[in-house]
Design a protein that fits this description.
The protein is mainly alpha-helical and 68 residues long. The relative contact order is 0.18. The chain has a two-stranded antiparallel sheet. It contains 2 helices and 2 strands; from the N terminus they run E-E-H-H. A hairpin with a 5-residue loop joins strand 1 and strand 2. InterPro entries: DUF7697. It holds the Pfam family DUF7697.
Length: 68
């Protein structure tokens, strides 16, 4: 599910990633049978790591759009 989350990113107007579209990800979790309470608990922690890594890659010039 986290790999699919790459298509559900919220981007800052001047560049950079600011987070996941949690509404979309929770809907995706429900559709996939993931308990929503578990998804709601875990996704913010995953989001923080993904956002940090993507922004670090972009800042270092390595933002090639590849997987995290």
């Amino acid at each position: 599910m986290v790999q699919a989350a790459g298509g559900q990113l919220r981007l800052a107007p001047m560049g950079g990633v600011i987070g996941f579209d949690m509404t979309a990800l929770l809907a995706m979790a429900g559709t996939r049978g993931v308990p929503l309470a578990a998804a709601a608990e875990l996704l913010p922690h995953i989001e923080a790591v993904v956002v940090r890594k993507l922004n670090e890659q972009a800042a270092s010039g390595g933002g090639d759009g590849g997987d995290v």
